[in-house]
Amino acid sequence: MELSGRTRMVGIFGDPVAHSLSPAMHNTAFRELNMDWCYAPFHVLPRYLEEAVRGVRALGLRGVNVTVPHKETIMPLLDVIDPEAVAIGAVNTIVNEGGVLAGHNTDAFGFVRSLEAKGILISGRRVHVLGAGGAARAVCHGLLGKGLSSMLIVNRTVDKADRLAAHLAVRYPGVDIRAASGTDLSTADIVVNTTSLGLHASDPFPLDPMDLRADLVVCDLVYRPGGTPLLRRADERGCHVIDGAGMLLWQGWQAFKLWTGLEPPVSAMTEALRQAGVQV
Ligand code: ATR
Q1: For the domain 109-243, what is the CATH superfamily, name and number?
Q2: 71 an active-site residue?
Q3: pTM of the entire structure?
Q4: For ligand 1, atom 26, which residue shows the shortest CA distance?
Q5: Which of 112, 140, 210, 270 has the most CB atoms at less than 10 Å from its CB?
């Protein structure tokens, strides 16, 4: 990639950041469209986050993605925040409009689009969400925006699930939204694991695998090459399985669109992820 005096810069703030596939995905997209743009990884420690955000203005970056652990702490440092990102309580994309920094959340869109791209109907379905943290909030908002019939939020710390369910019930009064400490999949069409269980091979299942039925859609935000134990078992049982790869692609797709105003080249971005070993 040739940089020039006119190269427009974007990037990602995270700690850690070295594992991120977003630079490969976005730089491939820029090359595909012959754009003089560059996406760089920035390893930003929490104590330098405020200075890094000022740097976006000072250095004239067009924008950045924001990943763990900064998605929530970055919010008070921005000038404006999109209403959906406020509702989710997390920002993963910043757009610099002439020094005014606007925060967005493209994770909710990314998750929903990853289901739609695989032909999964969301409207009118019954969903169980496992976990009640930041990732769960994005998933819940994204799905509820598509018109569910019901949602059950299941969390080890049930208080947190209660609070999230109460917050969502105010925003989506027409949907039956409840919280629980365990899941009974007989009342679900779609189940989404947003907990970190599955990241390590020795983790227990986040649900009872005996409950997996062939007509269930089973999603796991944890991405592991070859699938998490949950997705492998769900696949054996004939379920429709969705991993986190599509969400990675589509959240980046929307960020690209926000920065450039152009139609993102989805096949080039998919190919970049495949080259990095991620099957989308
Ligand atoms: P993220 O932003 O990835 O959602 P988070 O906000 O820290 O991260 O949330 C992690 C979620 O995974 C929480 O719902 C957490 O449950 P608690 O609220 O009870 O902590 C869940 N989680 C993490 N480790 C878990 C484990 N070993 N068993 C069950 N749930 C777990």
Answers
A1: NAD(P)-binding Rossmann-like Domain (3.40.50.720)
A2: yes
A3: 0.96
A4: 197
A5: 140
